[in-house]
Amino acid sequence: MLKRLLRSTDESVQDALLLVRSCHPRPGAAIYAPSADYVIPDVFVRRVDGSWVVELNNSIAPQLRVNAMYAGSLGRGDEYGVLKTQLQEARWLIRSLEIRNETLLKVAFTIVQRQTDFLDHGDELMRPMVLRDIAEAIEMHESTVSRVTTNKYMHTPRGVFEFKHFFSSHVAGEQGEQSSTAVRAKIRKLVAAENAEKPLSDNQIMHLLSEDGITVARRTVAKYREAMRIPSSSDRKRSKLVG
User: Which CATH superfamily is domain 170-243 in?
Assistant: First the structure.
């Protein structure tokens, strides 16, 4: 259609498409940088004497306590009933915050225990894990684990990750189940090492993963590739030609 409207040749249309694809889609970004949003981690993870240690970020955990002098000054008369109720509510609030922090620390520690290979070696060794696995390990309801891990971040030697990053679906493999995160990392590694003149197709990536003992369909490879914003093999080849 485009060729007919422009009364052009296939070569001219192809050259025009390559030129358009080489242009920056957001040229204004080169002169305007949006303000950065910084993530404050809820827990810190680090190695101490060969073991992984998990600690709460006390700088963001509220440090609340009831003033003992005021609490002790309350009399026993009925006129102090309202203040006594408020005192009890204050103590319940403080205890609720303590329980929340204890649960957060327990969940974080359990995640670290299960994902030590990732912390040691990276995404390719991320273990498959779902909320239910953590819930069963700490003997809490799955919905509680979901609430605790929502919008919570962990600072590790590999970077700052949202708790949800450690949860991923299972992919079948000859050496047991693997996480989708690990499979994505392997796809990214294969694409990074490919021949620039002959980029790997999704089908070729599927076969290479199969040789590595990972069973995934071609459409799954395509889905993971697109999720990582990796262009198709034909688009990667075109971009190399333009570049």
Answer: Homeodomain-like (1.10.10.60)
Name every residue whose Cβ is closer than 8 Å to that of residue 42 and which is 6 or more positions away in sequence: 56, 57, 60, 104, 108, 152, 153, 154
Q: Provide the residue ranges of all domains of the chain, joining segments of one domain with +.
A: 43-166, 170-243
10-residue stretch averages of pLDDT, the chain, 243 residues long: 76 80 76 75 93 90 79 71 83 88 94 94 89 94 92 94 88 72 91 88 92 87 91 78 49
What is the per-residue burial (b if ≥16 Cβ within 10 Å, else e) of 27-63? eeeeeeeeeeeeeebbbbbeeeeeebebebeeeeeee
Q: Are strands 51-56 and 178-179 parallel, antiparallel or unpaired?
A: unpaired
| Chain centroid, CA 60 distance in Å | 21
Longest dimension (CA), the chain: 97
DSSP H helix total and E strand total for the chain: 11, 6
